[in-house]
Amino acid sequence: MASRSAERISQQATNSIDQAQKSLKLLHGEMEHVHRLATLGTLAAGIAHEINNLLTPVLGYAQMAKADPGDSKLQTKALERAIAGVEATAKIAEAMLGFARPGQQVSGANVLEVLESAISCLARTPSKDGLDLQISIDPQLCVNMQPISLQQVLINLLLNSIKAMAGKPGRIVISSSISSDGFVEISVMDSGPGIPQEISQTLFEAFVTMSKAGTESTGSGLGLAICKELIEAAGGTISVQSQPNQGTTFTLRLQQAEVVASPVGKIHDHSSTDAKAA
Questions:
Q1: CA 231 to mean position of chain CA atoms
Q2: What is the pTM of this model?
Q3: What pLDDT, in 10s, does the model give residues 243-260?
Q4: Who is most buried in 36, 171, 271, 276, counting CB within 10 A?
């Protein structure tokens, strides 16, 4: 009798633990999704500004074409501007929707493709704020992580770098390499003011913000904490190296999804491309 009672209590305890673990996993997933939506809120002002910049010339050319319907060259130019503006706006909207909706359970992510989608989510490219964005990523490099999770991490790191520069000219370099133990290392380096040591030691803890260093911050302090959870859930690590007035480098270490023989790609300067789109 006592033995059966003990077994029943043990089974109930096991069921309760299993249910608690399932609930915790569900809450983690919901927290990640809510954070993605909060990140979109952070991006909203920049997105609205860029869409306005895209639609303003469309409206201007349409009004001129309407006022002079006999000018065939002007009509053609107006249509070309309209098509370009709508396509660019649609691309921003597609990136936003892809980031907001829950991600599919995909085990591998192409690093360069995910990075490009993260930059698209910014809407306003860094070069428009005087920042030189350089990318050195092997086009075939893949890591063992869900693309939407890697995108979330990269967007947060990019936003942090842009914010650190505070509208001043600077540089962001994103590069990849393969470590001696076979891990992929993705580095996001900026030439900003750096992070004080007392902050960098607890930077990945929840609710830690740069405001503790005397700098104004409107963030929740959850971004890097969630980034750390996402990276560790994929079996990787994230670390930071920074010194005041010497910039900051975040390094992601992730398992390689497949062996890629092609060399690391050349550094691409996005300033010329952005200038054409401006």
A1: 13
A2: 0.65
A3: 888 899 999 999 998 743
A4: 36
